Amino acid sequence: MDFLTKKLDNANPIVYGKKKDRIYSKADTDDNVTDEIDAREIFDLIRGIKDPEHPLTLEELNVVDESHVTVNSKNKNIEVIFTPTIEHCSLASLIGLCIQVKLLRSIPAQYKVSVCIAPGSHSTEDVVNKQLADKERVAAALENNQLLEVINQCLVDSL
């Protein structure tokens, strides 16, 4: 059975509001000004990712939040902690993979991206975090055409 045709894990999720869009200054849009990547920029990249089960974004479901994004520009590390809508979400690994792919496609390659589940928010958080941290498993997942198609559908229309 395809995971997109099975019964929904969370048929009636709580829908939260969206944050206001960032107000850009002239310097923000000037290509001659070098600025550091910050948490808001990372949040802006991932907030529009679609949930695999619903026509809602990860921001609307409160799966991602700017306060759970950490950027260390000096060490070139980015950490995103996400919170599935329910503790037994079977698509948590897919959601984490979507976040990773979006960031890997959007930010400079010298940054190390770490994506994990918020502590205590998922029944198999250790397993999912181990999968998301394993570079070989992530690379193998991205070679699966069916999985990559689902990821790309989640990323359509995201900023």
Care to describe what's here?
It is a single chain. With 159 residues, this protein is of the alpha+beta class. Helix content is 32%, strand content 10%. The protein has helices at residues 39-46, 92-106, 125-133, 135-142, 145-155, and strands at residues 69-72, 77-82, 112-117. The protein has a three-stranded mixed beta sheet. Helix 2 (92-106) packs parallel to helix 3 and helix 2 packs across helix 5.
Strand tally is 3
By CATH, the superfamily comes out as Fe-S cluster assembly (FSCA)
For the record, the count of structural domains works out to: 1
How far from one another are the termini? 31 Å
Biggest sheet strand line-up? 1-2-3
Rough outline:
globular
Class per helix and strand makeup: alpha+beta
> What is the string of SSEs from the N terminus onward?
HEEHEHHH
- CATH class type: Alpha Beta
| Fraction of residues in helix | 25-40%
Q: Give a quick account of the main beta sheet: strands, pairing sense, barrel closure.
A: 3 strands, mixed
Model regions low in confidence, pLDDT < 50 over at least 5 residues? 1-5
Q: What is the CA-atom radius of gyration, in angstroms? A: 16 Å
Mean of all residue-level pLDDT scores: 88
Strand content: 5-15%
Tally the helices: what do you get? 5
List keywords for this structure.
single chain, 159 residues, GMP Synthetase, Chain A, domain 3, 5 helices, 3 strands
